Amino acid sequence: MDNSFDVIIIGAGVTGCAAARELSRYNCSVLVIEKDEDICCGTSKANSGIVHAGYDAKPGTLKAKMNIRGNEMMTSLCEDLDIPFKRIGSLVVCTDEANREGIDELYERGITNGVPGLKILGKDGVKKIEPNISDDVVCALYAPTAGVICPFRLNIAMGECAEQNGVIFKFDTKVNDIRRTGDLWTVVTDKDTYSARAVLNAAGCHADELHNLVSDRKYHITARRGDYMLLDRSLDGFVEHIIFPQPTKMGKGILVTPTVHGNTLVGPTAIDTDDKDEAPVTSEGLSKVQEGAVKNVKGLPLKQVITGFSGLRAHEDGGEFILEEAEGCPGFFDCVGIESPGLTACPAIGEYMASLISAKLGLTKKDTWNGICRDVIKPFELPAEDRAALISEHPEYGRIICRCETITEGEIIDSIRRPLGAKSLDGVKRRTRAGMGRCQGGFCSPRVMEILSRETGLPLDSITKSGGDSQIVIGRTKDEG
Questions:
Q1: CB burial readout 64-85, b (16+ within 10 A) else e
Q2: Cα radius of gyration (the chain)
Q3: DSSP SS3 for 378
Q4: What is the pLDDT of residues 409-427, one digit of tens each?
Q5: Cα pseudo-dihedral 153, 338, 50, 253, rounded to 10
Q6: pLDDT for the residue 251
Q7: What is the Cα 242 distance to its own chain's centre?
Q8: What single-letter DSSP state applies at residue 460?
């Protein structure tokens, strides 16, 4: 294979995949390099799944502009990519009269940013739409355009769309060096060496390191860990909106929100860490989540937690998105410091970066481009007659593997066989939700592993949780025979 491309994108998170999808509209060759085994393995894999309205960022900043544009794009994008998305609205809750003016300031900021439909609700108005809100509530900022989304599906679907339009993906490939060679950029990995007319740095918490390889102007990213608690689906409806406390300089605080799949999510914390790759769940972090959650929502049944998880945010010292051609580095483009509202902003960032790169390289649009993708077939979301017909033709869609989430063998097979398909338990989980229910894979994981082994041709002891050295089976307790 020719190792020369027009554009190399480093990182297959939401930013990298959004840019890949947008660049696939153009007549150019694009390679995405990802150090992990799959799409959505880094900073994009663990977040709140919230599409923010856009009142929080300072007016005039790239965070504000990309948030507003990304929110506007989300409905049509999710329709094209067959992704669940619900505009349920958000509330920023004030529980102290002395802080009421902070809500007024957020409202004015939101109006300046162009957020539609903002309202400040008094105590009675808040309690009317959220009966379980704290009795200490004074008022709240209501933003109807906020919503919830499946972050995994967004990331994966953008990658699949890019791939079906000609973008090439290389996984388990770590970038070791980047250097300018004549008019091209040379990207040296642990597998091979590639060249490109342009490089897009979308490496999440490691984006500063890649930038600093090529530019005299240095950046510094702090990895900021966020701990979460996920509650059982039986609590569906306990809160109907995204409930935020008033924000601080460390972030938006401990929120309580429905997920797009009917769970209740609580978190995150904001704990700075030196480790840019691992985000272990800690008792300290979960304690902070619990303490913060009950301040704004009363009676929250935290004993119905089914799992805790954590993720990392890429906080650049300047606190702003850096979206530009790097100073003194023609053709090297940065997406640095993409923290919240990065998920919301990703389609706008992809659009913006593709426009910068296309202008730099003189790219032209393709005559034909397919922006439509379809999710894994979900038989239990089909009308009964259609489901029966599907199962009659494909019996695997009638065999339930994950009882908690009612996921069938057919869905798991689809998730493995589709473009950029799953190669691990977590890959299947992110595409189908097998293992995301109450038992957290306790019953279905062995069956999912068997299907992965059968479909990939790999022995069972080579099947991993999340790639790398995360094997689950290390041998047999007795020989077959």
A1: bbbbbbbbbbbeebbeebebeb
A2: 23
A3: coil
A4: 999 999 999 999 999 999 9
A5: 140
A6: 62
A7: 17
A8: G
All residues at 6 or more sequence positions from 200 whose CB lies less than 8 Å from its CB, including other chains = 7, 8, 9, 10, 16, 19, 333, 335, 353, 357
Task: Spell out the domain ranges in the chain.
Answer: 86-147+222-315, 379-462
Class of domain 86-147+222-315: alpha beta
Q: Encode pLDDT of 290-315 as tens digits.
A: 999 999 999 999 999 999 999 999 99
Residue 241 annotated as catalytic = no
Confidence band for 103, pLDDT divided at 50, 70 and 90: very high
Q: Check if the beta carbon of residue 117 is closer than 8 Å to that of residue 140.
A: no
- At the topology level of CATH, where does 379-462 sit? Arc Repressor Mutant, subunit A (1.10.10)
Single pTM value for the model: 0.96
Query: What tens digit of pLDDT does each residue of 304-361 get?
Result: 999 999 999 999 999 999 999 999 999 999 999 999 999 999 999 999 999 999 999 9
Q: How confident is the model at residue 400 (pLDDT cuts 50, 70, 90)?
A: very high
379-462: same fold as 86-147+222-315?
no
* The predicted structure's pLDDT at residue 474: 78
Alpha-carbon torsion, ordered 404, 410, 411, 413, to 10 deg: 120
Question: Using an 8 Å Cβ cutoff, are 156 and 170 in contact?
Answer: no
